[in-house]
Amino acid sequence: MDYSLGNEKSRKNIRTKQWVKDRIKKRLTKHFITKITKIVWVICRFFLMFGLGFVILFPLVEMISKTFMPVSEYTDISVQYIPKFLTLNNIKRTIQYMNYWYALKESIILSVSCAVLQIITAAVTGYGFARFRFKLREPLFLLVILSIIIPSQIMFLPNYIQYRFFDFFGIGKLLGHTVKLIDTRYSFWLPSAMGVGIRSGLFIYIFRQAFRNIPKELEEAAKIDGCGNWITFIKVMVPNVKASIVTVFLFSIVWHWNEYALTRTYFPSKHQPLAVALAVSVETAKQNMATHTDTLFQMSLSYSGALLFLIPPMLLYIFTQRLFVEGVETSGIKG
User: Fold this and answer.
1) pLDDT band at 61 (very low <50, low <70, confident <90, very high)
2) What CA–CA distance (Å, rounded) separates 254 from 245?
3) Inter-axis angle of helices 292-330 and 242-258, to 10 degrees?
4) Does the domain spanning 89-334 belong to CATH 1.10.3720.10?
5) CA distance 171 to 177
6) DSSP state of 176
7) 249 and 115 in contact (C-beta within 8 Å)?
8) Contact criterion met (CB below 8 Å) for 281 and 97
9) Quick check: 3 pLDDT over 50?
10) pLDDT attached to residue 5
11) Is the dihedral of CA 127, 133, 135, 136 positive or negative?
């Protein structure tokens, strides 16, 4: 009998079994490492999201808690975030102290009117950059991009002087009379109507990207039907960028609503919106502090005033959330 052949087969079987064991061991090790990696990533992601959520939500939770907490409990060590008794006195006093309803009306008028003007000018300008070819188109669009990058604070002083002694092409000097636009809404309306308002460069870019994504065949079909450029723009192009219109409208309202430096500069005495009214109220209360009770009142004014300031844009976002998210996804922001 040939025993060498049997030994060779047995050695091959042993090697095969060892190879199978090694393969199984490697796969189990790889599976184990993958599973451990996923578990570690889930844990890290949880702590990351928890930390970010805490940083973002903690001031909001504290603001709501202090707003509905009696002032006497501010110094109570046993009370942290859940008040023993709920009260509306802080809100009532803040509304009266801030002249809230007048400031709210001024904020709504200013924000909505500027948003409408910016939609019109940004849509027309963005359509021009997207569809028409003209000399200096690229350098002009570069200036639009630069207007997004350059901080608006740089233009504070030149704009203030321009609006304080407003003169249209030197006509006022010839007539010996200049117009004062400070303390009037025209100091915000004119830049918004001319395409140089707050974040107007970004809005022009959004509309430009949105119009570029629309097939040119629609415009060609409209021209075949006898539509001119304006009719094509209004009846064909604008209905196809509703999502971008909603996005620009909400962004413009929020940025005008939160604007403090410009409104404080341009409205020193009249038409003061909520951002200015809140800051002025807190500053006045701080200057009049004489006792410990006044200090607590100033704290309650800050908390409840901030909550009253946030309620209108929060309600606006709640009712327009679906349109806003759709607009962000389909507008030029993603491109």
Assistant:
1) confident
2) 14
3) 160
4) yes
5) 9
6) T
7) yes
8) yes
9) no
10) 47
11) positive
Q: Which residue has the higher pLDDT, 257 or 171?
A: 257
Mean pLDDT of the chain, nearest integer:
81
Give me the amino acid identity at 286: K
Cα torsion for 125, 131, 136, 142, to the nearest 10°?
Answer: 60
- Provide the pLDDT for residue 109: 92
Q: Are residues 270 and 261 in contact, defined by beta-carbon separation less than 8 angstroms?
A: no
Q: What span, in angstroms and rounded, lies between the C-alpha atoms of 103 and 100?
A: 5
Answer yes or no: are the C-beta atoms of 333 and 126 closer than 8 Å. Answer: no
pTM of the model: 0.77
Distances (CA, A) of 93 to 102, 273, 303: 15, 18, 12
Q: Is 12 exposed, middle or buried (0-12, 13-18, 19+ CB in 10 A)?
A: exposed
Q: How many CB atoms lie within 10 A of CB 236?
A: 17
Q: Which residue has the tokens 């065949």?
A: 217
Residue type, 133: R
Q: What share of the chain is helix, strand, coil (3-state, %, to 5)?
A: 80, 0, 20
Q: pLDDT tens digit string along 68-119?
A: 888 877 777 777 777 888 888 888 888 888 888 999 999 999 999 999 999 9
Q: How far apart are CA 323 and CA 4, in angstroms?
A: 81
Dihedral sign from CA coordinates of 289, 293, 299, 302: negative
Looking from the CA of 103 toward its CB, the CA atoms found within 13 Å total: 27
| Residue that the structure tokens 């140089």 belong to | 196
